[in-house]
From TrEMBL:
Pfam family, one: KTSC
Upper taxonomic lineage: Bacteria, Pseudomonadati, Bacteroidota, Chitinophagia, Chitinophagales
Domain KTSC: 3-59
Name of the protein described by the UniProt record: KTSC domain-containing protein
InterPro entries the UniProt entry points to: KTSC_dom (IPR025309)
Amino acid sequence: MPSSVIRAYYYDALHTVLRIVFVSGAVYDYEAVPESIYQAMKAAASKGTYFNQYIKDKFKFSRHRDAHG
């Protein structure tokens, strides 16, 4: 199901970084995210709700860059 807030997300298992690309174009990298959190997000019916409940304000993050296109 497409999210109205999250355009895409990618997980780097080696570095445990979860990259979230928002519909607005903002791109954030969340650090030290366990793979179990990523897998649960993949399975969640609402990516935005899952993000707000289990990721936002729970992990250190940095704004990476804005997505183009």
